[in-house]
Batch of 3 targets.
Target 1
Amino acid sequence: FDTEVTDLRPVEDGWEIRTSKGTYKTRYVVNAAGVYADKFHNMVSNKKIHITPRRGDYCLLDKTAGNHVSHTVFALPGKYGKGVLVTPTVHGNLLVGPTAIDIENKEGTNTTREGLNEVITKAEMNVKNIPMRQVITSFAGLRAHEDGHEFLIGELEDAKGFIDCAGIESPGLTSSPAIGEMVADILKEKMDLKEKENFIATRKGVLNPNTLSKEERIQLIKEKPEYGNIICRCEMITEGEIIDAIRRPLGAKSLDGVKRRTRAGMGRCQAGFCSPRTMEILARECHKSMFEITKSGGNSQIVKGINKDSL
């Protein structure tokens, strides 16, 4: 939501949250701030915790390399986790990584030459002849490593109404559905919540035209011509899919938001061709100018000026 929390303080019947976009009051706070979870925990509790960002570098290979292995190949686990793996992805690519490098910068998602060299060297100890010339992108993410190497989930004893979800490192992604249910149960009990009779527990994903029959797809394009307009040629993503991703509740507001929901920009050219078209759709649907469209929110604007302005 492009909203930074600047302060937390207990008030009568709950909490006051000060943000970059105003002050809010709530009965409960769920601290799921990743590598920043220690910052907010330590604002309200005398029992301090410390989280170290642990960077993991990855290489993603083109779909032409996707069949190099048929199953995920793990190294022996070590002090810093399961090590560098080689795995086919559900979309047909080959993924290699990650490293496990402790850093201080909580925004340090940049890759390094040393990190990527480590990925390649360690991967080739278990899988030979990986076609690294087929790498289409590299990236890094941060795991929230808590000093005690534990998931910290639950209401704080000295800060009632403040619920931690801190230190959720590997296998945090796998655990996240269960963690979500656990925290929901905590709130359900404390707030005496009752499930609505008409509650819809499932959410439809963005329509993938490739799942339709030829006849169904033709009919869809007749009814909604935007599904016949290919925007991302690498992944064959249509304008209709991008519009769906933008218009739905909590829809995409950035290029990365569209990419994560539709895979537009995930192919071999890594958005080299489709970025301008996707930006035009975002600008139109979000009623913004091209100068306001970002890669990933915040100050990550892509267009800074027009070439002729400098002439």
Target 2
Amino acid sequence: MAEKDLVYRGKSKDVFHITEGPYADKYRLVFTDRATGYIENGKPVFDPGYDSVVGEIPGKGAIACRFATHFFRLLKAEGIPSHFIDTINENEMIVEPAVPLSMPEESPEFPGSAPLLNLEFTWRNNATGSFWRRYPFVQPCKNLHKVVEAWTKGETDILITMEALEETGAMSKDEITFSVKLVKDIAEIVSEEFTSKDLHVIDGKFELGRLKYGDGKIVIIDEISPDVLRVCKGYSPDAGGNCTVYDQCTITNYSEGKRTIKNKKQVSAADFINIFL
């Protein structure tokens, strides 16, 4: 599509406005091969839990699109609203236009002011990744009961509390309550789908938005794909849902003021995609 129709370029997808044809005024999501992660020993390590794009994985966009299609159709069958309309080829999806949860800057005359462009909601079955790095007093892989956190999207995602969202006027209390429940409901469906394949979802992240047309209902937008999920195998919970083999799987380190945590049994996107697709 023409670059002039580009609405948004994200870390893994490009969004275009469709100006003609049967899907006029809808959006086209183009799933790219760009992938996030970190650099280790001069080489990219791909991990959806990180914010920085570190390279490309050939064919990743097509796989992510097929995967997202699978889960959007599953959500539809469960009565969960989304912006999904149809998938038209291997890496392109048609969606209803939606406005990300956002807020303009209140005092643009002050240097440094900036709008809230988008929100992302993380949900966590277990304590790992940035959650453990922020709260290292917690046992790795402790059951977190799908705890939900909100992040402002940008070059670097920044944690924002639910109370701050309400007090700034970015979202009302009712909208926050609805959004947290929606994220948890979707997380439960996604987790159960993986459990049925003998896999365990460690954590994930979803974006929500308001449908542009109609009553402006808040729905899940963007994607459900390998780019937004971390999955492991061999998960063995105790009665409280805490992983009993975390000491055999988790590797942590603390050096020069920085903490890291890795999960040896984390499954690569390519491996769990093969199970579904």
Target 3
Amino acid sequence: MSHKLTVVSAAVATLLTSYYYYQLKDSRIRAQLPLDIETWRYPGRSYEAEERIWNVFGPILARHGLLSWPWSGHSSLKTPDDEYPRPNGYNELFDESSSIKLVNLKNWFYWNPLNRAIRTKEGQDVVCRVIVVKGEGVNALNSLRRISTGLNSLVSRNHALPMLREFSFQDIVCGIFPMSGSSFGELFGPNSHDRCEASVGDTLDLFIQAFEALAFIHEKRVAHRDAFFHNYLVQWDPESLKHQHVRLTRPRLYLIDFETALCFPEDSLYDDCTCTGLPFGDIDDYALPTPPGVAEGKPYNAFYLDFWQLCYHLAFLQTGIPELDELLLGLVNMGTAAAALDALSERLGLIPPIQLHVQPMYREVVNGHTFYPRRP
């Protein structure tokens, strides 16, 4: 009997030792990681500071069968084995003859280190996003759970990338998302002409999808609050002008970066979904345009802010068709993404596609504002 007790005691002691060892190890790892979202986004004035965070976080990724892509310089990561990523349906290549695009497939560029290119143990390449740190980011997490998981993630009108899974480490919560194409910001705007060959038709098709994306999340009572065109990814570059024909297929657009999102009760009335304040930061460091009243701290409809943000840059587009240009200028007056989606779709349905197969042009000023706002 005493021998059995000794064996049991030894087993319990081993388990406790192992438990406290990993607790201590995890505590040491957590102590080296940022204490808030902002510090993770801007950990220092060097890429080495960004890399240090993910190197520390590496053992936590490994527990979940995940391996970080290695750093390749500046804000760029490269595939672990220098091979092309596996196809996933969200990131495709239209022009395989382009050496630049082939090289870019093996590289992944990030805006800030909250995002990381990751390879799963099955060999699939995905993106890991830090969503919550010490309770900050819960609104974003709840929004993503509502929009990007379950039945909603299967709806064709939903343009948010699905959250394939989430995992946590102490007070940190991360989401795993499919790796998709390049930013819409690279395909649209006055500065895109030297690197983009998307036609007016290509561009307007993407904006229609963007309005559809907003209409869907608003229907589900989620407001994005940073819905400018640069927060969308494009499955592949359409490049109709390069190939000199109207595209028979169109790339899909994906809405990303729900960091500033608000998740209202699902039975809320549309007009009751209001908030106050800027989406992030304060008036001194928020460089993006805002509709009247937002910067002054007045209550505003969160869904209207999304709609206004998307309309802001679209108004600068000139298509060469006066009636269509007039519609784009006044689109913001329609008030909702759903109304704009219907109006724009109806108008484009009356225009032969060949008329939209032209180079986009841009107004220099709209209502006293420039495409790229200048800070005072």
